[in-house]
Amino acid sequence: MTDRYAVIGNPVAHSRSPTIHQLFAAQCGQDLDYSTLLAPLDGFAATVQRFAASGGRGLNVTLPFKQEAFRLATDVSARAHAAGAVNTLKFDDGQILADNTDGAGLVRDLTANLGCTIAGKRILLLGAGGAARGVINPLCGEGPAHLQIANRTVDKARHLAAEFSAAEFTIAGCGFADLAGSSFDLIINATSASMSDASLDLPAKLFAPGAVAYDMVYGRASPFMRQAQAAGATVVVDGLGMLVEQAAESFLLWRGVRPDTAPVLHRLRQELAAR
Ligand code: ATR
Predict the structure, then answer these.
(1) How far is it, in rounded angstroms, from Cα 242 to Cα 224?
(2) Domain boundaries, position 177
(3) Fewest 10 Å CB contacts: which of 48, 94, 184, 191?
């Protein structure tokens, strides 16, 4: 029987995950079906339970249910625990296993696809919400020289930095204005500002020579990406690679095989360019 998977969210019709996972399945010769699953805002748990009870094998979880998925799980991975959010569920013998592959997806896109070295570098993470929290541990795992977290609401950045503070390197939180005079090798936009086409109030000279600017949002040149380009960042990218890489990590968890992401990423880029 064909194994069933889906991405659950609200809204969810726009999701690229079905395309990505069907391409992975075809490439790896895996017999599975992957669709979208719309859950009512007050009916996430019931929708998950129904899907699992009807034989569903796993779910990707997207907005606004990533925290709720955490609470529903019977078994939470260490990285989902650190992120405080879940993007992958696996149903196994009545158990609900929960994981978070977003951070691993970002790191893999940066290092394997973009050839960016994180070790020993000065990293700036913009934002202190769920998206930022989820990538801190995976970034720190690569051994940066320094991780600066900057946020519009300064206290949230300070709290996050304190929570993840590490002995081997420094993590500090601040506001955007405090960044004046500093420069970074890698700047990651994890705010949701790009969703509303808002630009960030960033000081000039933030981008060191050869700097990489990464926006987690994908599908269009965001105000942050335009700012980075104008400020002289050498590499400016959106988060499409992160989307494909986090999907590959989920696929690995479910199916025990890691798909080759390069052709899938290439295909999605072509589709987006043709829109
Ligand atoms: P997500 O799960 O996408 O991270 P979130 O937890 O609501 O969503 O966090 C949104 C992040 O984007 C926050 O860091 C938020 O800053 P505040 O903590 O000050 O609210 C940031 N953000 C959203 N819109 C922004 C804007 N126009 N300018 C700057 N930061 C913005």
Answers:
(1) 17
(2) 103-240
(3) 94
Q: Is 66 one of the annotated active-site residues of the chain? A: yes
**For helices 154-163 and 130-140, angle between their N-to-C axes, nearest 10 degrees:** 40
In a domain, 271, yes or no: no
Strand order in the sheet with 184-189: 170-174, 146-150, 122-126, 184-189, 207-215, 235-237
What is the C-alpha to C-alpha distance for residues 205 and 184, in angstroms, rounded to an integer? 9
Question: pLDDT averaged over the chain?
Answer: 95
Residue of 192, 217, 218, 222 best suited for mutating to test ligand 1, as the one with most atoms within 8 Å of CB? 192
Q: Residue 180 domain-assigned?
A: yes
20 shares its domain with 144? no
CATH number at residue 20: 3.40.50.10860
Vertex 158, ends 232 and 85: CA angle to 5°?
90
In a domain, 249, yes or no: no
Tell whether 93 and 139 lie within a shared domain. no
DSSP structure class, residue 110: I
Helix (H, G, I), strand (E, B) or coil at 123: strand
User: In total, how many domains does the chain have?
Assistant: 2
End residue of a domain, out of 100, 132, 148: 100
Mean pLDDT of all residues in 65-71: 94
CA atoms of 9 and 26, how far apart (whole Å): 24
The per-residue pLDDT for range 27-38, each reduced to its tens digit, is: 999 999 999 999
pLDDT surpassing 80 at residue 162: yes
Task: Give yes or no for residue 128 CB within 6 A of ligand 1.
Answer: yes
Element (H, E) at 159: helix 154-163
Q: Whose Cα sits closest to atom 21 in ligand 1? A: 191
For the Cβ of 192 lying below 6 angstroms from any atom of ligand 1, the answer is yes
Segment 156-170 mean pLDDT: 91
